[in-house]
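Subject: Arylsulfatase G isoform X4

B.,
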Amino acid sequence: MGWLFLKVLLVGVTFLGGLYPFVDFSYNGDTRGQKPNFVIILADDMGWGDLGANWAETKDTVHLDQMAAEGMRFVDFHAAASTCSPSRASLLTGRLGLRNGVTHNFAVTSVGGLPLNETTLAEVLQQAGYVTGMIGKWHLGHHGSYHPNFRGFDYYFGIPYSHDMGCTDTPGYNHPPCPACPRDDRPARNLERDCYTDVALPLYENLNIVEQPVNLSSLAQKYAEKATQFIQHASASGRPFLLYMGLSHMHVPLSRTQLSADSQGQRPYGASLREMDSLVGQIKDKVDHTAKENTFLWFTGDNGPWAQKCELAGSVGPFTGSWQVHQGGSPAKQTTWEGGHRVPALAYWPGTVPANVTSTALLSVLDIFPTVVALAGASLPKDRHFDGLDASEVLFGWLQTGHRVLFHPNSGAAGEYGALQTVRLGRYKAFYISGRVNFRSHSPARKPLAPRDWNPECYYEVIGLFRNDHNRTGIMTPRGGKFFF
Ligand SMILES: *[C@@H]1O[C@H](CO)[C@@H](O)[C@H](O)[C@H]1NC(C)=O
Ligand SMILES: *[C@@H]1O[C@H](CO)[C@@H](O)[C@H](O)[C@H]1NC(C)=O
Ligand SMILES: *[C@@H]1O[C@H](CO)[C@@H](O)[C@H](O)[C@H]1NC(C)=O
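Prediction pasted inline below.
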């Protein structure tokens, strides 16, 4: 095997009409031919019911529904945690937060990141001869050695954390609505709580900030351009590639785009969902035109919808958590209720993954790492335990089952962060402790509640088993009550 001549030149060079920093795709080993390419697209805060193929009330995802018809749709697929950073850390390490150390979201001021002794999926694939790119939201620490360029990605284009964690000139829709960044000639106003005004959201290309504040109205288009360029260059190089995309959609603020302006009278959420769908459609088109049949496209989400954002949040489909909601809590993001971590998931690989198939296998974002490593013919690092499994036989249509046991960690609703508070065992699900994330305001002036207003006092000890029957899940309480959600 030859040696990798992998380097990212961090100075932009004029290339393809734009400033596209040159990634050296050359590799003097022979990897042409058999190794598949991988495109992993992770939506943000997307509800299970936001995918039309899952939930007929949703009509805004024609491209994704098409992908479902041409590939495999997973209906019992789970995020590895119910918030951003832990879920992303698990995707890139194949390990739960208790093992990889990421149990909370990183803040704008965080100087750390995903622990440096963790090996990322991108590092494993780089070693196996892949060219690797990350486009979008990183949220695993970006200072110094925590930056994606030092975590296995030859190319990086995106924002370091969520796009509500910094001000922009194009704030979009949010609750509370945030103002544009303060201008030099104007002092910062007495601004709404929950709005960041002291940091303008940066857009990075590799180690350089290329736009600050980022223009949220054109971000999706930039992501589409960079992704198609990356796929183009990587395919032309003859080297296999990994592209990991962390979309801004469906996280708030929802952008005010041309698309939403065109569809006046439509809910901003629906417009934004169509924008995401179109972005995924553009990437799939590019794959179809350059590397079809040798590229595995995996679409999923990082956690359920952010219910506190009311009409700016997505749909949990049938997983309404009626028991939880009756206690005044949200059934979605941050919780281990179904709406919090059961996410849309699609696998598309014409000729390898059967078309128009629905899989009920219990799978997880944790499985992406071992599956991709196996399909790439690489090996897992030997010195650690992985929580995911190699799901390739499920993808090929040879096997119908996934995890027998799958743990869901706490992501802020109850107890210790990262603690394994909920378990799925086949058709059953048990809560050790069930908390709540409030989404009702106690203060009529402000809606919804900010995280610091959440009331941590209401923990319900619900120890019992759920029967999972036709996608309806229920719990049995210690007193024998039965609740379905
Ligand atoms: C990384 O270091 C931490 C702290 O020493 C340790 O707990 C963890 O097990 C290490 N992880 C690996 C993969 O070696
Ligand atoms: C942001 O991008 C949109 C769409 O490309 C453009 O119309 C608008 O002028 C830009 N806004 C700013 C503040 O640059
Ligand atoms: C997909 O499968 C469904 C039901 O099994 C069928 O009604 C539909 O026509 C199929 N679609 C395609 C594109 O094959």
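DSSP finds eleven helices and 20 strands in the chain.

T.
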